[in-house]
Specification:
The chain is mainly alpha-helical and about 220 residues long. It has nine helices and seven strands, in the order E-H-E-E-H-E-E-H-E-H-E-H-H-H-H-H. Helices cover about 45% and strands about 10% of the residues.
């Protein structure tokens, strides 16, 4: 199973797999319940289950749902300001999509991985501003302005947008440090996070090709 980190809810300090799934909001509870059901069935011997959990997806092919995807990359590649929820300077873990795929393949073939959850190998946390600076530098369009959206603006937007309403539940992930600890996985298995410079280059190249093919529209 591919999961995310919503199930933990707000925590102090780095996120590890040992934390309880204590989320109070509906998005987090649904994620927690899905894994708890699968784990119970695994323990009963009815299925074989393992879950890999990733932070915000980032990288080639990520067009929706990622905070460095469709809302940001087209503007960034044109050198225009970008907006983000929360504090743009708060450290944040970004999980590279190809690393997610490699981790899923690896644990599926490792029986000793089954029956529990693992965090996908993820590089050092970088703020939204730092990531935008790196992406813009690679694209040759930087620096670009990165602005945090005021809570009042999000409140008004949520009246009209179900997506924005849903983001309010997980805003805590961007208001303060949100750092993933993937050391448990890295101690047991071979997959490692792709170096950040490779992540940045591949992401910019993919988005540039996509936008060029669309006539520059994003």
């Amino acid at each position: 199973m591919l999961g995310n980190l919503y199930g933990y809810g707000p925590v102090d300090g780095p996120l590890t797999e040992e934390l309880p799934l204590a989320a109070a909001g509906p998005k987090g509870r649904v994620r927690a319940a899905g894994w708890e059901q699968a784990r119970n069935l695994h323990e009963q011997g009815r299925i074989k289950a393992v879950e890999v959990r990733a932070s915000d997806f980032f990288g080639p092919g990520v067009t929706d749902g990622g905070h460095l995807a469709g809302r940001v990359m087209p503007r960034l590649l044109r050198g225009k300001p970008v907006s983000t929820i929360g504090d743009p300077d708060a450290p944040h873990s970004w999980t590279y999509l190809p690393d997610v795929a490699r981790a899923m393949v690896e644990v599926a073939g490792e029986e000793r991985a089954w029956g529990r959850a693992w965090h996908v190998p993820t590089g050092p946390a970088l703020s939204t501003r730092e990531m935008a600076d790196r992406l813009a530098a690679e694209a040759g369009t930087g620096p670009v302005a990165v602005r945090g959206l005021p809570p009042a603006v999000l409140g008004v937007a949520s009246v009209f947008s179900p997506l924005i309403r849903a983001l309010r539940e997980i805003r805590y992930q961007f208001d303060r440090p949100f750092v993933v600890d993937s050391s448990a996985y890295e101690t047991e298995f071979a997959v490692r996070a792709t170096p950040i410079d490779e992540q940045i280059k591949a992401t910019v190249d993919w988005w540039r090709e996509r936008l060029d093919g669309a006539g520059g529209r994003g």
